Known about the structure:
Blueprint: H1 11-36, H2 51-59, E1 66-68, H3 74-79, H4 84-91, H5 126-139, E2 145-150, H6 157-168, E3 173-179, E4 182-183, E5 186-187, H7 188-191, E6 207-212, H8 216-231, E7 237-242, H9 262-270, H10 272-284, H11 288-311
Residues 72, 120-122, 150-153, 180, 182-184, 249 line the site of thiamine diphosphate.
Amino acid sequence: MTDSIELRPTKEQMLHFYQQMLEIRRTEEQAAKAYTLKKILGFCHLYIGQEAVAVGAIGALNDDDDIVTAYRDHGQIMARGVSANAMMAELFGKSTGVCHGVGGSMHLVSKEHNFLGGYGIVGAHVPLGVGAAFASKYLNNGKVSLTFLGDGAAQQGAFYEAIAMAQLWKLPSVIIIENNKYAMGTSIERHSYLTDLSTRAEGVGMKRWQFKAYDVQEVYANVKKAVDHARSGKGPVLLEAVTYRYRGHSMSDPAKYRAEGELEGHKEELDGIRLAEIALVEQHGVSEDTLLEMQQAAKKVAKDAYKFAEESPIPDPSHLYDYTYAE
Ligand SMILES: Cc1ncc(C[n+]2csc(CCOP(=O)(O)OP(=O)(O)O)c2C)c(N)n1
Ligand SMILES: [Mg+2]
C-alpha cells in the first residue's frame, strides 16, 4: 500500500504522527496512575498499543470531517487536536475538561473539533457515524464521516443495519473496525467464525479490506485510500485495522486471559512507536537526539496535563444541565 508515493506520509507528517503517538501513550500512562490513586473514577479504557490507528487514520482526514467512536476514545480525541490538558481534566471530572467535566472518559466530545463522541453502548454509535455521513451527503458539503468500532462491536445488530443503509445510499462514510484481538476477555477466535471482520461488508456489497495497523504509515495509506473513495461519491468503505491492546479491557481488568509471552512478543516486534522511530531514522534521516528531545517533550506534556487536571476546579453544580439540550 505504501508503494504509492502520494499515499506515503511526508517527513513532516511522520514527525507529527510520532509526537502525537508519544503524547497519547505518556498521557494515558499518567491517567492509569491517577486511576489507581482514585483521582479518576468510573470506567477508564486505555488505548495503549493502538495509537498508530487513531493517529494514522485521523491524519488522513480533513479537519472538518466528522469522527464518531466508542468508549476507548482518549487517543482518538487527542489525535484530532484536543489538548492533553482538556482530555485529562475531563477524566478527572473537572470544569476545564473538554466536556466541562460532565462527560468523562467514555463520552469525550468536541463539536469545535468535529469529534462527535465517545459512546459506551457497544455498536450503538455506528448508526450515528453513518447518520453524520447522511447529513453530509444531504448538505452536499464534501465531508466524510469516520467511525471507529471494536471487533466485539462488529457482532452487534446496529452495525449491520448501519452498513446496509450506508451502502444503499452510497454515503461518504469510512468505518474502521479496530480489531485489537479481544472483546473484553474474549479473543477474536472465540467470538467470530470469520476473523477478517471486513468481510462483513460483502453481505451488503460494500467495498472492504483488512490491513495490519501496527505501522502508522500503513494506517495513513490505507485510510487515505478509503477516505478518497468515500469523498469522491463512490460509496462507503469498511476497513478492518488489525491492532493489539496492551492493557486490560478497562482499568479493573488484570488481563489474565492472554497466552504467556503474547504481549511481550508483540511489543518487541510490532510496537507502533518503535516502528515510527525506525522509519524516522532510516527513511527520513532524523537523529536519535531529535527523537530523545521529542520523547522528553511528550513526557512533559503528560505530566503537565496531570497537574493541570489535579489543580482545576470541579464543575459548579448550577451548570449541570447547561449542555444537555441544544439552544
Ligand atoms: C450493548 C452493550 N453490550 C455489552 C456491553 C459491555 N461491554 C463493554 S465493552 C465490551 C466489549 C467490546 O469489545 P470491542 O468491541 O472489541 O472493543 P474494545 O473494548 O476491544 O475496544 C462489552 C461487551 C456494552 N457496553 N454495551
Ligand atoms: Mg476489541
